[in-house]
Amino acid sequence: MSAAEPLITARDLVKRFGDFTAVAGIDVDVHAGEAFGFLGPNGAGKSSTMRMIGCVSAPSGGTLRILGMDPVRDGSAIRARLGVCPQQDSLDPELTVRENLTVYARYFGISRKVARQRADELIEFVQLTERAGDTVEPLSGGMKRRLTIARALVNDPAIVLLDEPTTGLDPQARHLVWERLFQLKQRGVTLVLTTHYMDEAEQLCDRLVVMDGGKIVAEGSPRQLIDRYSTREVVELRFSEATLDSYVGKLESIGERLELLPDRILLYADDGDAAVAAVGNRDLRPSSVLVRRSTLEDVFLHLTGRTLVD
Ligand SMILES: Nc1ncnc2c1ncn2[C@@H]1O[C@H](COP(=O)(O)OP(=O)(O)OP(=O)(O)O)[C@@H](O)[C@H]1O
Question: What is the pTM of this model?
Fold first, then answer.
């Protein structure tokens, strides 16, 4: 494998479950040192893709190369060089924090002494030093997730796969996980993650693909996607009336685009304040007005007509 070759290459990759196609022919390249994301709503096919990359589920079609190897033929050699943080924590609740790492390290043939030393470094990295000797059971969800991340690093992997790394965590716990993942990124670790949180994708991903219905609907850096598929700013308008449809005709010509959601109208315009002034000039009196910058949520809405998190 040459240095410039992507660590992961998928071409027309397909995953079927019986008659159902969960991944419908996707092309992906992940390069060394980048944080690459699969962003999409529940059921988009992100986990199915991750499981193929993790060599625990065989592709139904297309080609997949990981670290220059074939996941079906060379699955165990690839797995030895991957770190996997699954969607559901699979820690041993009866073992201590440290034991969860040292026992896992033994699967990779790492000596007891090295395992112990590496476990302590990783426990410090994920800020669990004070809990190192405690059993896992009573730890908070955020602590368990950080420990799962530490466990994924035990074999010093070339690629770390993270399936929805912060789903189910409270905001503070999410920020702590993001901070640790950001540190990993800065150390040059290649991260591949799935998420349905646009803020997570924006925070962590250098490049991402937006998935919907098993297909890739867009690809780029968060900035590129926002530039390509949205305006600089968005005006969110709420009205006290229950039905918003009657406002659409009056607002349509303001800005570049309008989206009608069940509870609000979004006006897409590079200059949000000018759009708000135009709303005022039409004698419309919204009950609330918010001008904000475009996010990946707006990109997703534009591409699919739906919001990411229902
Ligand atoms: N083992 C399976 N057998 C049958 N259908 C499956 C199986 N695994 C996944 N699917 C289906 O494939 C589709 C994609 O699922 P997948 O888990 O890949 O989506 P996802 O984008 O990761 O969403 P989530 O965030 O819910 O995991 C879903 O409709 C799901 O029900």
Answer: 0.91
